[in-house]
Prior knowledge:
This protein is an alpha+beta fold and 573 residues long. Helices cover 48% and strands 11% of the residues.
Amino acid sequence: MSRKVPKDNLNYRPARPRRRKYEGNQFSCVEDINTVEESNDEEASASAKKLKKSLDDIIINPSLCYRIIEFIGVFSALADILVCSKCKQKVSFGESGEKGLRFKLSVTCKCGTVLIPSSPFIFNAYEINRRIVFAMRLLGVAREGIRIFCGIMNLGTGISQHAYDRIIQHIHVSVKKLFEVSTKNAIELEKKENEKKEKPILNLTVSGDGSWKKRGFSSLYGVTTLIAYYSGKVIDVIIKSSYCHTCNFAQNNPDNSAYEDHVENCDVNHKGSAGKMEVDAVLEMFKRSEEKYGVRYTNYVGDGDTKTFKAILNAKPYDDIPVIKSECVGHVAKRMGSRLRNIKKTAKLGGKGKLTDVLIKKLTTYYGLAIRRNSESKDMMRKEIMATYYHSISTDKKPQHQFCPTGVDTWCAYNIAQSKNMPYTHKDPLHPDVQTSILPIYEDLSRDDLLERCVGGFTQNANESFNSTIWRLAPKHLHCGSKIIEIAAYLAAGIFNDGYSFILKVMNDLELQIGKECQFFANDYDAHRVQRPNRRSLSSSKEARTARKGKKTGEMDDYHEIEGLLYGPDIAE
Length: 573
């Protein structure tokens, strides 16, 4: 039954149904992570397996709470209603002693003035200042960003350079210490995984990859990482730097006494090109593995685009114990796409009905699937790779499905139709010029020596994911020094290994109190990290993404066909 609105009541607000009170557990996101332990590990995502960890060792203060208030308005209202308990006179409020975001609240009456600090004092710094610097570093924002934030929010002038540098130093010490703990735990977990797989406990399989602060192999900074294969956790990180701001400043300073004292703490730890950073860093991590962790990295998964493995072989870090090289199947699959795009340009095979971008993507996908689905046998890999070629050139008059798999689960529609005694009509085969041009590519990319390194189906997906995490914390478009990159790398490794519980541990170590909102955010972040890959792994999601990508690529091909070349060097001529 609807209620009639009174015409003379302008403030009338219609009644709304009351929201039903939530009876569940608002922190249920923790349960989502912990239930992974009860589920089948083979079905769980990589993130879910890594985040199976208790938060018992993290100190929570549920009464802690920060709020942003409009100072004059709030305390003027309080001054109108409050009196001193001793002199029974009204009180007035003011502020003094501003240092960064911290200030002292002054309460004045006839009795005198009482100063109340707005934030506790810890480690020669105020808690709120350390908290804002740490929070902004997680956002990839430096002191200038804090100054802009404080200015626009009318919170003050920000934090002085001296205070900021001191806080950064404390953060660096803390994250490095906890990073070492995290990597040692990761090594122990990998040993257990080796034992489960009935492999030598101390001989680990690792994937290595490098990433640079700047594209084009002209970067002054590079980060190289080793990730344990079975646990998927970071076990070692090295940050290479070929630049030191202090050294650069001292070269133009006639007084070199300060420079001489600085030499021992110089940021430069690399001599050579940016491309050599990955080679040197991986070799250094291999050489120190026995001393640091008591293990050996006897199987190295690389992307094949550097001379890293050659340097490992020449150095012989474990004397007579050989190191085996495995290829990342994802990078091997990309070679097919690169080779097809090159032949499209050199042999002029572009255009409708020939080697389009849609076809290149499809053939590259088939090549990658042939390797992944047969990762235990190089012979089966080669057979299915060539099956994808002959399947694509088959016609009704000349079917060539002798290499295609048979059985219930086969992907070959022709063999399925044959098994059911049903007619089958082939789609248009590859253009004859395309067939002739790409056959040598298929033969070259199915060589024994290449496919032998693909046995096992190893990938560097974890490394690529980790690299993106680093540069979210230290964005490439913003300048920063080696210490900030080290902080970003250690934080990224901790989050990658243990989730946001690592951040809470760092906050505990920095004596930043953790309130219930902070705890809830960390739990919620980790829960979403588990749920996101689970949703993406659904077959319906995969098919939808593939369809969208294929449609977009097809549209771009059509546009290029209609419009022709519209952008390129000297095109205006």
